[in-house]
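Good morning C.,

I know you're traveling, so I'll keep this short. The sequence:
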Amino acid sequence: MSTFFPRPGRRRALLAAAAGSVAFGLLLWWLLPLGEDPPSGTITFSTGTRAGVYQQYGKLLQQEFHQDMPELRVTLTTSAGSQENVRRVATGEADFTITAADAVETYELSDDNPGATRLRGVARLYDDYVQLVVPRDSPVRSVADLKGRRVATGLPGSGVRLIADRVLKAAGVDPVEDITPSSDGIDIGPAGLRDGRIDAFFWSGGLPTQGLQKLTPSFAFRFVPIGADLVAKLHEQGGATRYYRSTNMPESAYRGLQNGAAVPTIAVSNILMTRTDVDPRLTEWITRTVIKSRDRIGSTVHSAQLVDLRTAIYTDPLALHEGARRYYRSVKP
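The tokens, ready to paste straight into the viewer:
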């Protein structure tokens, strides 16, 4: 028995099928590799301290790179943070890294900056938030109150150290003479605060940071606000401080800790970066993987959810790498 399709219904079905084919084709265009043979070889990706977002994000990116480029070996190396990451890429010790924009500009403006002109941007990723942490019962209510106290300002070579010293100076606190500084990072700083070895510590990272999340169930702490007036004083220092902007740490950043209140603080953007001599085809593939893996990685690392194709091209102070530019041009509407 034959089946009869009324003409209008058949037309609608054909149109629906055509639309579905177009949609499927666009999906394949977005997901399929850029060429027949994925890049191969070995690259080094410098991340950050253990328990920090750079390290967590880097591990997940490594898995995504392996899926898209199975013959590419990606070696992850931990580091003190942004300042060390910039120098590693500039000098060829690493090929890719994540770093804060202020650390890039600080390196470029430094008298000791080998390879600075070779640095290039791949993608703007997400923002770091400055988090000044004290015990909940601490008398410290402002940055100025840190005078005379034991304060962890981050590892030498970290982005935390760079911004903490500047924030302290803006508040009239000498980071050497007015406090007892320590070099605790996010890996040991929370434990130092809990054990009473330090009175406060600075951290600059994506929200939320794993090292702080782990402290939440066992120790009552809070964040010290860093207001817009202090950010204005920061800008008076000139140079890379132009990358600091006043913002609020959302009340949902650390659930059950902030009592539904946002915390005034400072944000600075993070950049995925490389060098001019890194193969453009490889960089194009890397860029595509970073963008298309956003949602999968974002389900684990919340900061990755903020990676956005519309803003990824803004890698100031770095010009885009040629491979990254090719990718953004290929997806431009």
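Safe travels,
E.
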